[in-house]
Amino acid sequence: MTKLNELTIAAARDALRKGDATSAELTEACLAAIGGAGALNAFVHHTPEIARERAAAADKRIKAGDAAAMCGIPVGIKDLFCTKGVPSQAASNILKNFKPEYESTVSQKLADAGAVMLGKLNMDEFAMGSSNETSCYGNAVNPWRRKGSDAALTPGGSSGGSASAVAADLCLAATGTDTGGSIRQPAAFTGITGIKPTYGRCSRWGIVAFASSLDQAGPMTKDVRDAAIMLQAMCGHDPKDSTSADLAVPDFEAALTGDIRGKKIGIPREYRMDGMPDEIEALWKQGTAMLKDAGAEIVDISLPHTKYALPAYYVVAPAEASSNLARYDGVRYGHRAKLGQGDGITEMYEKTRAEGFGHEVQRRVMIGTYVLSAGFYDAYYNRARKVRALIKRDFETVFADGIDAILTPATPSAAFGLGEMAEADPIAMYLNDVFTVTVNLAGLPGVAVPTGLDAQGLPLGLQLIGRPWEEGDLLNHAYVLERAAGFVSKPAKWW
Amino acid sequence: MSINSETARKVAHLARIAVKEENLPALAGELSAVLAFMEQLNEVNVDGIEPMTSVTPMRLARRKDVVTDGNIQREVLANAPDAREGFFAVPKVVE
User: Fold this and answer.
1) What ipTM was estimated for this complex?
2) Is A102 in contact with A67 (CB distance < 8 Å)?
3) Minimal Cα–Cα distance from B17 to chain A, Å?
């Protein structure tokens, strides 16, 4: 029999409604699983008291017949979300001991729906990283291992703790955020589903900002149906975020009909990268065949500016980060450096930020500062924003031509070993986002779906990209792909 | 575009991040590598293209210019590293 912590949201919801399980039982099963999974370093702040309190409240609501789909479902929350009275430090030392006096809109919506918060999840510092190795809490570890090896692998990043926790059944689902691929890449590395909705779908209020024009929250779940259910609870207009879309949220789960006959799937030729592993290429072909078998029409498309997405991203994102992270000044919250005799306010800023920010964050803040500085603003920042407009136009053109969804690989490889990239230059790490970053630049919804294992037994995923605001249709395509791929593998428990 | 130690020092100061003198050459090298990667953008013809300012074509929402929140001094100061008498405290700024 399936253990309670191994259930999907949909299965748990049905069990709760039938009275076959209580939220208290689900919650205890997850807390026990978390207690035994210290080696994964996925949960970095534990909130069992809050969890038990919310589980009891959820059980009351379920009994009273007043239960939303997420009611009583135990979830993990990425450390980037501000949670009232609970440490929220974006995996950075500069926010050590920071306990927000307020709750992020997304985590509040989940709480209002009755979801049970188990604790806060590991991530890359300020969501800057693709391997969870820039975290002040240390690496989160992937529950998957290569066949016959006990080398620790990355769960990806930046939502590495979320991915590890969901893949290892420490929670039923988790929140993630995605600025350049931070939901989809870790989902692909751990064999789970992750969707970044259209920019503006989820409120950014109360989520520690990295690059405000790119950041979006989304769910990381065990399957596509769960992604639909949880996304539903996270979305919606919020007057506190000026870029939040004032649009009705459709019923995403109801969109999962499994019927994509007559839909047009674009296969972008520019995503066939030089040196792409054969396994990724084969996986992509298989996925294409699966959608074709389901009755979709496969169309060869061109997104000509794809190659320039990463360099444009690495101008725009650090520029916005350097501005957003200016708030960490040692005055209002977080860390302040010990000052020497005669140190003034400038020394306070400089020492505080040197001590509080990790290496990658410092590098990106300085790159951002440079590209925004007098004399370089036009050459770098404005040029990157123009290229971004062209990347967005590429997508608009193919959608105007009738394409319903675009199929690409999610990542250029399977999960790599922790520390393996330590000697590589930062650009090599940035290449992890090569297939995902275009989606953020264009503000589109994108979903990663696990579709196979590589020769070493590690999960691989494909990405589907949808039209703006059409998350329901996108998830339906993902649902078809998921059913055709029949991915059911789980990591063998070693932790 | 290659960055030297002097430029790295200037950027670090603009970003208000203290960098030790001996670490400047390494920092300059790292920043140069990232900037070299960005040079690819010069291959793109961007004539007549407006820089993208908003992700979705929407007008920013407006609201009445009224006070919507307040009287939360305790909450505002709760996380301050140094708060005294209802204020944030910092080292002396004016001589």
Assistant:
1) 0.95
2) no
3) 4
